[in-house]
Amino acid sequence: MKQNIYDNDTFFKSYTSLRKTGVTYNDFVEQPAIKSAISTLNGKTVLDLGCGNGQFSKYCVDNGAVKVTAVDISMNMIEQAKHENKHDKIDYICTPIEDYEVKNQKFDLIVSSLMIHYVEDYTELIEKVESLLNKNGEFIFSTEHPIVTSRKEMNNWMKDEGGNKLHWKLDHYQEEGKREQHWYVDGVVKYHRTISTLINTVIQSGLVLEKLIEPQSIPSGLEKMPKLMNEKRRPSFIVIKAIKQND
Amino acid sequence: MKQNIYDNDTFFKSYTSLRKTGVTYNDFVEQPAIKSAISTLNGKTVLDLGCGNGQFSKYCVDNGAVKVTAVDISMNMIEQAKHENKHDKIDYICTPIEDYEVKNQKFDLIVSSLMIHYVEDYTELIEKVESLLNKNGEFIFSTEHPIVTSRKEMNNWMKDEGGNKLHWKLDHYQEEGKREQHWYVDGVVKYHRTISTLINTVIQSGLVLEKLIEPQSIPSGLEKMPKLMNEKRRPSFIVIKAIKQND
């Protein structure tokens, strides 16, 4: 059973009201890094894995993509995407990534934003991505940084009595697997993987690693969300870009 | 001025008596990982950057290397190497890596064991390595893991009153540069770099990343040095392997 927290009503309401503020880690840290890694969208076919509300899919067509296939497990998210980011060059499809099947179609760019830490079988996913890329196609994904997913307990800032952050608590780094946490609702499951697993699996699939980004906030984020200064102390996300050199 | 702590008498005595025990992080964690990453030594020419006491250079000729050039900044180490690991297929050269010049000679394998965190200009070093590799040549190096070099203060295990390790203290991850510490003597300088810097610099030099290893202890290490269990909690080292695909 694939996890579908976005169709939990409590979670969905909290999540969408957060995202609507436009003042989030996504806006200032993760999305700028993903976008900076794309060589060009002009004339490209795109697969958006875990498209959420369709904001990034819409960004792709607004910047020259000729076709975007946008996939998400959550009917809530797909309905919101169809409502807010409808476009005749975007196909929204509601299915778990793991079950997504496509024949006789490949893509120039495959992007996945903060979805892969929910997927149990990382190797299978990466192999599927590799098989769906055109020659010279790009794969760019973000995931929670192993530094933040490793420790099994939550509340990972060590604080003094005044609530000041002293350091980040790190532990259990080599113990890959499930991490359960409370994020609006109890029992949200994410999967911790080491950096070497994240990278070696991509390379073993046949893709060529081009770049790693451990993003910090863009300047406007530091003004609007001062706590993003903490991204200097420990990275929340990692962005990996790889290329399919051979067909 | 390049740092040469190994020619400090106090440091050198402590360091050599530690290494002679054969019960070290090098023996059980770092060297097994380096060796596992080498495709073959048979018939290969090797450059050993930061060769220390020559143990690894000797391992190379014992396992089929036809010629090893072994470089170290420390006269103490080079003299020990010439004494303990002398071999007519090994040339020991005493010079800082940064000043090492060689004309009309390239290598099939370049290895550097736990030296690169002492080097200030990482980009220059990687570009030199790339220029010294034959086509299809391998570059394998280990360095202290960014998780352990990041925090500016030392004593990075958070302990309870009974001395039990609660978690690893992580901080200052994105602030690259000098970290000064006490290791037998005061003022040992190491350079912290993020994982993205370590990897992207290799890729930008033209080398192709093949593998990342965040090694744990081999089983015999856990018997002889029980504290190596802590390598599961946070990795001390990272090993990077890259290939020169084009000449």
UniProtKB/TrEMBL annotation, chains A, B:
GO terms for biological process: methylation. Keywords: Methyltransferase, Transferase. Residues 47-141 form the Methyltransferase type domain. InterPro entries: Methyltransf_11, SAM-dependent_MTases_sf. Pfam families: Methyltransf_11 (PF08241). GO terms for molecular function: methyltransferase activity. It comes from the Bacteria. This is 2-polyprenyl-3-methyl-5-hydroxy-6-metoxy-1, 4-benzoquinol methylase.
